[in-house]
Amino acid sequence: MKDLTSALLRLLVCTLFKQCFHCLGLQMGQGLWRVARNQQLQHQGYAGQSYLSREHGRRIAANNVSNTNHRKNAQGGIDIYHLLKTRKSKEQEGFINLEMLPPELSFTILSYLNATDLCLASCVWQDLANDELLWQGLCKSTWGHCSIYNKNPPLGFSFRKLYMQLDEGSLTFNANPEEGVNYFMSKGILDDSPKEIAKFIFCTRTLNWKKLRIYLDERRDVLDDLVTLHNFRNQFLPNALREFFKHIHAPEERGEYLETLITKFSHRFCACNPDLMRDLGLSPDAVYVLCYSLILLSIDLTSPHVKNKMSKREFIRNTRRAAQNISEDFVGHLYDNIYLIGHVAA
């Protein structure tokens, strides 16, 4: 409600500014009209002041006839009269009325608005801006998965009301994750299932990542289902690790939770790339070692506190000590990726 009030105040201020600029524009238009009139008087073909004084009466009589021709053939090809006339007609037209357009075009225009602007638009075009398809699109573009999407809507269901509930639940989650999930369940938005909660988290980008990390650390069953939603097929190992840490943020310090994340990632990566693992002779344990090596290398190359950066030869030597079956070329490509692209868990 506070955001809507602020938006309405912004709209009122913009309207007042528009009226001020409108008055200023009229004054500028009158000034341009005087310039145009002076130009047409200066280019009438009269040579001297004495001639003007003798022919003053005839010049005024012929002025009305020459005005039209001069407006059509102003110097430099600029028809100031035409521009001012067009501007005035556009001012009289005002805003385009969306109700006069085809419905498909009106809905396409309104689909580019966010929730706040759509609420403001409903003050003018109530039937159009309150259409369920528009609010359904807003819900699914922000929260890609909810259990309620796959159910028969209850009596009195509204996607506009659902949007408000989803927004309220997200704010609650960012303050207290457990209360946020309970709110979604109480409203029938989410089912009490680790898989459904994992899908909701995977398809939502409005959740605070620090609160999400705390929640996943406590709900390992949700974490397991969240890991299985990732598909790392045919992805290079550092790139797959970056995608993984975009959805499941790594902790700031090493510990049991980081080890759990890397272990789950290693098994999922191997499950998605069985042919590659067989060709390279890699196992989940070997991928685990490589992931730790990539994280340490990322810190070494990107940290401003490390003056003596690890060389490519040192990285290959240290990595092959821990995983002897890995080829030097593959480890070298890993180093190049971190050197060129950056941290895997930034």
TrEMBL record:
PROSITE patterns hit by this protein: FBOX, SEC7
Pfam families: F-box-like, Sec7
UniProt domain F-box: residue ranges: 95-138
Signal peptide: 1-23
Occurrences of domain SEC7 (ranges): 160-341
Keywords, sorted A to Z: Signal
PANTHER family, per database record: F-BOX ONLY PROTEIN 8 (PTHR10663:SF372), GUANYL-NUCLEOTIDE EXCHANGE FACTOR (PTHR10663)
Protein name as it appears in the record: F-box protein 8
Species of provenance: Phrynosoma platyrhinos (Desert horned lizard)
